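Kindly review these tokens for lecture notes.

. . .
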Amino acid sequence: MSTMSFAASQAQARVLFPGVLACVVVAAAATFLSEHYGAPVMLFALLLGMAMNFLSGEGPCAAGIAFTGRTVLRLGVALLGLRITVGQVAELGWQPLAIVVVSVVLTIAVSMVVARAMGFQSLFGLLSGGATAICGASAALALAAALPNHPLKERATSFTVIGVSALSTLAMVIYPMLVRALGLDERAAGLFLGATIHDVAQVVGAGYSLSTPTGDTATLIKLMRVAMLLPVILAATLFTRSAGGAEGGKRPPLLPWFAVAFALLVAVNSTGWLPSAVAGTGSDISRWCLVMAIAGIGMKTHLKELATVGIKPVVLMVGETVFLALLALLLLKWLG
């Protein structure tokens, strides 16, 4: 039996290898371009993947691309837990935690309501609002992995990743000028940047462009938002279960395995027993997994399909970004 299982695993690996290799090549190219031009690596991976979408059709790469966009994605999300510890969150006190929790909850709730009012499914508001409120492309991928399958889910995910990456880059440029114009001190500036910019890399870039203390605070606040990924995934899963789940009534599991792994890795990383080299390596593997996954999703995306979404999704995501910024400023005035 073990010999048969090994042979089956070898056969499966041979089937998946071409598509996985294609995603690795695109991820490497995206990383190179990101490092040299300073744009988000997720955006490069998605665009390069879309340029190679012919590979996802009938052919040797199709199975591996689907595997990367699904299983490798979940592994990358699980390893995000190695970026944060409970102690990092506790050091900032209750006010920043309150700002993060209220901002995430209200942004996602308002996004779902507005999405429904604009004629979309509530789940699209959950996907785009979660990406805006938590951690950009990584949150979009994590939430997409937790949501039930739907014919339009991959197109919605691709659009969300493109939109949130573009808006995050724009915020990285504009928000430091905004906090200077508002006269915010280093702590308040760090709180605002960490609570509003979508992707971790852009938060780091914006924060440290002002000062080291601002960058430190912004990064910790951002990691608190990343920590909100687990309860939001759980809430999303409960929501889809109560709504009947995917087409045909099949419900997703109460808590996906990658969300459990995420929580366990946060707990392990918080003990201090994990060598920093191991945590750093795990974080690097997580980044590579997510870049590979978004490359795979890009390969399964067709520009003609994205062009049909119209202006309303763009308006929704811009509105979510503006809402989050205004809400963060208001909460800073009350609680900061």
Remarks:
- The chain has a mean pLDDT of 82.
- The chain has 16 helices and no strands.
- Residues 20-302 form one domain.
